[in-house]
Amino acid sequence: ATPGAAPVASLSFGRDALVLVRADAPLDMTGSTGLTGARTERKTRRAYQVENRHKSAVTLQVLHAAPVSRHEKIEVESLYQPQPADTAWNRQAGTIAWHQNLAAGATAQFSAEHTIRYPKDIELVERP
Fold first, then answer.
1. Which residue of 2, 3, 42, 93 sits 20 to 30 Å from the alpha carbon of 26, by its own alpha carbon?
2. CB 26 within 8 Å of CB 111
3. What is the distance between the alpha carbons of residues 93 and 90, in angstroms, rounded to a whole number?
4. Contact 117, 75 (CB under 8 A)
5. Which phi and psi angles does 90 have, rounded to 5°?
6. What is the pLDDT along the chain (128 residues), one digit of tens a residue?
7. Under DSSP, is residue 24 helix (H, G, I), strand (E, B) or coil?
8. Residue 70 CA to its chain's centroid (Å)
9. CA 127 remoteness from chain centre
10. Are 66 and 94 in contact (CB under 8 A)?
């Protein structure tokens, strides 16, 4: 998949129509790794842009759901830009929170990349 090739969604988010959120098309790739292809590697990327169309600054709180391994053979590696303020928001593992002041007319970008590695013989079960 080529980043940016898919259409991009623009949303008005929350109760404030002057704060706009744009979610880039998700990137999901899965492949085999290792000499014998005995492991599976899945990479995901989610990116968001938040624009403040107010004439004054606003305080943002952006939440993101990250994968959490519940099995010792499943590895999860995450990379965030910028670094989140909390990786267990409201004491919930996998709930990422960014907090940021956003000046009038400014735009902020947030991204989360996750790499999940696991043996091919393990079935990956995703929970909502």
1. 93
2. no
3. 9
4. yes
5. 55, 30
6. 344 444 455 444 557 889 999 999 998 988 877 666 788 899 999 999 999 999 999 999 999 999 999 889 999 999 999 999 999 999 999 999 999 999 999 999 999 999 999 998 888 777 76
7. coil
8. 19
9. 16
10. yes
